[in-house]
Design goal:
The chain is α/β, with parallel strands linked by helices. It has 14 helices and 20 strands.
Length: 490
């Protein structure tokens, strides 16, 4: 399919080198190697080599697609046909098994409280959830994210580890996003055996702040104790699976973000992400100038905790920065790649079944958000939902390519920018391509408004030095450092 690749890092200088056939390319930065969890959060750029050996340098989406990664993206793109908008299945299924939640509105910042309030106990039956997951796996899906809506641990089939275990048996990756209120009641051993990546919303370092934010009386000490138990179990199994945590910044809790990060690290958390509240102004805290300054100092201190075993992610956008408005030409994209690569399934209170939504912004039909959208479809047939999802590309009243000119609020700009550049550069992904991971401070990676990647032409290579860190890849190689798709019959 392709010429041989030679990727190396020059010693003592921050320069990455790539040789493709008879051309040489240099990139400011360094290659990121290893398996998905080794790369997690360490790269911010892709270097793409197309089937005809053309090379593109572009920003990558936040380093990783939790818990999916480059190989999942490559696998789905490899199923695209020439001129086709979608693969046989979405890459990621965000599965909200229930509207139930043990927390109470999370300081008034909960995006789902408006629609869950109407049907607070709506739940998808366990057997129906199994059918949904099996249909997803059979069609070629890659990642199941147990999410909400409510807290997925309020559903016994998740809390018991049954559904994460099913995902593993079907060769699906799974992740679980939870407040942690019920984490101590989980079958932690079964979750670990299922390789389910868990991310817990901590949001505090003290009981008092946690109770004020989450609106219940679950002691934070018990949540951290369950995290420690889970981490110790993973260590005994010699599992590379990390544990993640999030901290949602608000005026009532920001002063504890550093203390929370330290407690998280000491309890076995490996990924600590500080998040901004997204959504309409009514949900978002408005920080004063003094508070923003204090938060900046705290986040700098949090960032200094980051090391090989404890990776930290802090917001780089202004805390008061509003969501992007695609309809107001604030986001350029030919298609809504978020709703092409992902979909949300949540309870349908009207039927007792489930409904599929365009994306996370329209959970509950978008009730409580700036814009509402009807579901793609509703159903009680878990074995046939993928067919309905495919049909929605033609039957839904707004096409995927019209959404960037229709939606008034988007929280997935990074993924959409990345996919728009990548797909337009590849043309027909089934002809083959390879992906290298790079960390770079090159300013060209931030030219998102241009809506295009930077195509590199290269020059003839200098003789390779035997003392360099050289990695040689054959056509279609599947190694820790590069992921490739071969053309059919290639």
């Amino acid at each position: 399919m392709m010429n041989r690749f030679q990727a190396e890092k020059y010693p003592h200088i921050n320069l990455a080198r790539l040789v493709v056939g008879e051309r040489e390319f240099h990139f400011e930065g360094h290659w990121i190697r290893g398996k998905p969890w080794d790369r997690f959060g360490l790269y911010n750029s892709y270097v793409i080599v197309r089937h005809d050996d053309e090379v593109c340098f572009m920003p990558a989406h936040a380093g990783e697609l939790v818990p999916g990664s480059t190989e999942d993206l490559v696998a789905i793109l490899g199923q695209f046909g020439s001129g086709s908008l979608f693969a046989p299945a979405p890459m990621t299924l965000e599965l909200d098994p229930t509207y139930r939640c043990s927390s109470r509105d999370c300081g008034g910042r909960c995006f789902s409280s408006a629609y869950r309030r109407r049907s607070p106990h709506a739940t998808i039956p366990s057997e129906l959830l199994r059918e949904i997951i099996i249909d997803f796996a059979t069609a070629g899906g890659r990642v199941v994210r147990f999410d909400g809506g409510g807290d997925p641990l309020c559903h016994f089939a998740v809390r018991s580890g049954e559904l994460p275990e099913l995902c593993q048996h079907l060769n699906l990756k799974s992740t679980l996003l939870t407040s942690g209120d019920l984490f101590e009641h989980c079958d932690l051993h079964r979750l670990a055996q299922a390789d389910c990546y868990v991310r817990i919303s901590l949001n505090a370092a003290s009981n008092e702040t946690r109770w004020a934010f989450h609106g219940n009386a679950v002691p934070l000490d018990r949540i951290f104790a369950a995290i420690r138990q889970f981490a110790d179990g993973l260590a005994r199994e010699n599992s590379p699976l990390p544990i993640g945590a999030t901290f949602l910044l608000d005026r009532i809790n920001f002063h504890e973000v550093l203390a929370c990060a330290i407690r998280a690290r000491d309890s076995g958390i490996a990924h600590f992400a500080v998040r901004r509240v997204l959504g309409p102004e009514a949900l978002r805290p408005e920080f004063t100038t003094k508070e923003q300054s204090a938060i900046g100092d705290l986040l700098s201190a949090v960032g200094e905790l980051s090391d090989e075993d404890f990776k930290v992610f802090v917001p780089w956008r202004d805390l008061n920065d509003p969501d992007v408005n695609p309809a107001n030409t604030e986001l350029y994209s030919e298609h809504c790649w978020q709703s092409i690569f992902k979909t949300v399934i949540e309870p349908d209170p009207a039927t007792g079944g489930f409904c599929a939504q365009l994306c996370g912004r329209y959970r509950g039909g978008g009730l409580g958000q700036l814009q509402q959208m009807p579901p793609l479809f509703s159903s009680k047939d878990g074995a046939g939902w993928i067919d309905k999802w495919r049909h929605s590309f033609n039957s839904y009243f707004i096409s995927r390519d019209a959404l960037p000119n229709t939606c008034v609020s988007c929280i997935d700009r990074g993924f959409i920018f990345m996919m728009d550049r990548l797909v337009r550069f590849l043309g027909d992904p089934t002809k083959g391509f390879s992906v290298f991971h790079l960390f770079s401070r090159d300013n060209t990676q931030n030219e998102q408004a241009a809506g295009s990647c930077i195509t590199r032409r290269g020059r003839r290579p200098d003789p390779l030095s035997g003392g360099l860190d050289l990695v040689d890849f054959g056509a279609g190689a599947q190694r820790d450092d590069v992921y490739s798709v071969e053309a059919p019959g290639g």
